[in-house]
Amino acid sequence: VTLILAGEGVPPGNYGNYGYANSGYSACEEENERLTESLRSKVTAIKSLSIEIGHEVKHQNKLLAEMDSQFDSTTGFLGKTMGRLKILSRGSQTKLLCYMMLFSLFVFFVIYWIIKLR
What we know:
Layout: H1 22-90, H2 93-117
Membrane topology: Single-pass type IV membrane protein; Single-pass membrane protein
Function: Required for vesicular transport from the ER to the Golgi complex. Functions as a SNARE involved in the docking process of ER-derived vesicles with the cis-Golgi membrane.
Organism: Crocuta crocuta
């Protein structure tokens, strides 16, 4: 009776193939390693891309918050201006029309005077 201890009778470096034919097993193993490395590089690329997307989303949210506050302040300013215009429109229309006519005549005479000096 011959007793074979673990590791005896197996060529060095072939402990992992468990007696399978060298050509088929090693080819599959090499293909698996290549595919694993390819998958690892793709996962790394996707991870870095998702981190960049996260940074961009945070930046865009910050810009949107700033725009929202600016729109709120503009809305308040516009509301105050509209209130003043309503108060102005309730006043005497003839007075406003008279001021507009006087201003128009003044501008007309200034332009006439500039043309005459040439």
